[in-house]
Secreted protein (Mycena albidolilacea), 150 residues
Amino acid sequence: MYFSTLLAFIAFFTASVVFGQVGTHCGTTADATFSDCQALVDPGTWNSVWAADTNVCHYRNPDAGDSAPAYNTACHGNCCVYFASKTGRKPDREQTRRDAIGLFGCADVSVNKINAMVFTEQAYGVCISNGNGCGDCFDDQDFSGGCSTC
């Protein structure tokens, strides 16, 4: 009985370490203005400012190795949405917008601030930050592991 309980605990702990990074992470980067982010993801604004993969920035993740490219895909006011992939995938306009909207649960509406990142099982991340978020969004273990396709 004791041995099986110990094995279950080890299995649970190992799974949480390996897969804990997949999902939404609130508070990972510099604050953006939430109302600017709400305006940014309006389809009209989003489509007019969409930069796709033309605005390249770089981040360095000590857990993942050398520096890697990320993209500042869209900005409005004090809100930018960043995209990075572990497999060379390029940002998709509508999927990135939906991923950004999915981060709105991390907002602190009482102070009109948000900062968050989602790391997907498809080995890419989307982050909401201010205009200085490229390195800060993807530079820690929230983005460095946990997906089976990486």
Observations:
- The chain has one domain: 2-144.
